[in-house]
């Protein structure tokens, strides 16, 4: 079983070895056969495709094992990047390994590693968490477990939820240094570096956010990673001195920019006005 990495946006990032393996195997197990045909057609790969995604992986695994035991070679690919990294394939590989069948990686693209390499954050140690829970309470609980981690933290998130994630991080982690990578290797590739609050502010200025996002966040232990209520108070004082907005609207705008809850900001404003 060959585990083959594929491009995450730019088709030219495909390796010679990956193309040769895909041409030589007997079967390609693809996350989405229609999507993968674009890549395979580009490189003239005519090997037969069969679907293998999170909803049918368990059912297809016995078939793949049977083929492998009968001497067939199979390549596993995902829609983009390295299979099993926030993509299907883990259970298949575990089952195949238990049968003492060789599993061989064909390395290539991985959004997490590509983005980390240019993030400007420490790379000697990192913690990859992929996609976090969508429910607010579970998300906060997960971040609480991660906030004392010293390595650089790596997350994947959709453009629809990236602002929610960053806002929650500010409340749990503080205003740490971070880098958000979007559309890596694609036409509209973009990197935003700075404090989490600065990245959130830049996102709030965009009408539409497109493309999957990779977020890299500095681990704990650095003096400039903590955004506490003293910083919030400073922001409120500076804003009060330069605007005549009502308390409620002021709280709303500051909450949107910093990630703090509006109620928390509102109460802080009232204390400062007393």
Written overview of the protein:
The protein has 274 residues and is α/β, with parallel strands linked by helices. It is 42% helix and 17% strand. The protein has eleven helices and ten strands. The chain has a five-stranded parallel β-sheet, sandwiched between helices. A five-stranded mixed β-sheet has the order 6-7-10-8-9. Helix 6 (136-146) packs across helix 7 (162-173) and helix 9 (229-240) crosses helix 11 (262-273). The radius of gyration is 23 Å and the shape is elongated.
In short:
By secondary structure, the protein is α/β, with parallel strands linked by helices.
Whole-number total of structural domains: 3
Would you identify the CATH architecture of the largest domain?
A: 2-Layer Sandwich
Mean pLDDT level: 93
Distance between the termini: 69 Å
Helix proportion: 40-55%
* Overall geometric form: elongated
Q: Which spans have pLDDT < 50 for at least 5 consecutive residues?
A: none
Rg, alpha carbons = 23 Å
CATH superfamily of the largest domain: Tetrapyrrole methylase, C-terminal domain
Strand order of the largest sheet: 3-2-4-1-5
Computed structural class: alpha/beta
What is the ordering of alpha helices and beta strands? EHEHEHEHEHEHEHEEHEHHH
Number of helices: 11
What percent strand? 15-25%
The largest pleated sheet is described as: 5 strands, parallel
Q: What is the third-level CATH name, the topology of the largest domain?
A: Methyltransferase, Cobalt-precorrin-4 Transmethylase, Domain 2
